[in-house]
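Hi R.,

Here's the input for the glutamine complex you asked about:
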Amino acid sequence: MQKCGRQDKQVPGDEIKDETLKSAYSAGMERLRQSGVPEADLDAWYLLEYVTGISRSSYYMEPDRKMSVWQRARYEECLSRREQRIPLQHITGEQEFMGLTFLVDENVLIPRQDTEILVEQALEILKTETLPQCDGKTLFLDMCTGSGCILLSVLHYAGRMGKRVEGTGSDLSEKALDIAKQNAGALGIRAEFICGDLFANIRGKYSMILSNPPYIRSSDIDALQEEVRLHDPREALDGKEDGLYFYRRITDEAREYLLPGGCLIFEIGYDQAEDVSALMNSAGYTEIRVKKDLAGLDRVVCGRYS
Ligand code: GLN
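And here is the predicted structure with glutamine in place:
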């Protein structure tokens, strides 16, 4: 987690009497619990870690360490933002995904752990199956890239596997692409980013097209928890009336942008496997497979197009 500034540096005389890490942490947990924040204990810890830079093990070795006035004030401020149901990741400015740190803000969907299944499946296909290539390279296109978490982690781990790869991320939002570009820079990964309505500005053909498109039914959005409903970009969630709008368009349009035998791989909602598989099947994709997440729910659908 990115630490905020002054961290452990404690100026003598800067401590508040009796304000220890432990007492601040207990008060923080209680405050978030009282406000009905889900996983209050965990969030109170992450915010303490963010503000003080302390690790779990250092905390347990020295729970009575004093906090500086500055740290205490910062912690208070972070707790009060979290009480207002601002997502933890918007307070700390980052989210870990596939073991990599991604910058996030209100312009991108916060990367979800479930989406790691999509990345793992893509890497598994790259490792164990044959994908069409262009000039000896495997080319990836991430449609609706948001923070870039899917594309950049695929490129990172594919590179580690010794594969020659290139990647493009596309999104309708310039602001999201700004974040994706910053993430590419921070992770030291070369990738191309294109702004446009799905394939509108895409040229060329790809070995694999990946996408975690918006897939929540419009009428279900109001029932989502406040952090998601009010703080994730609505356009990153809304899959229109039946939630399948983007699957329909991407399944149809991707055929023109896949190299022969190329792979289309989607993240889906837990109840969308049948519908998305049927869409892919009637568009002529073959080898259609569904992959489950760690909770045993359908999470990924992929297929090939020749
Ligand atoms: N590809 C990004 C992610 O999975 C953003 C997805 C979206 O905006 N729907 O996190």
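One thing worth noting: The pocket of glutamine is lined by residues 109, 111, 115, 144-147, 149-150, 212-214, 236 (CB under 6 Å).

Cheers,
M.
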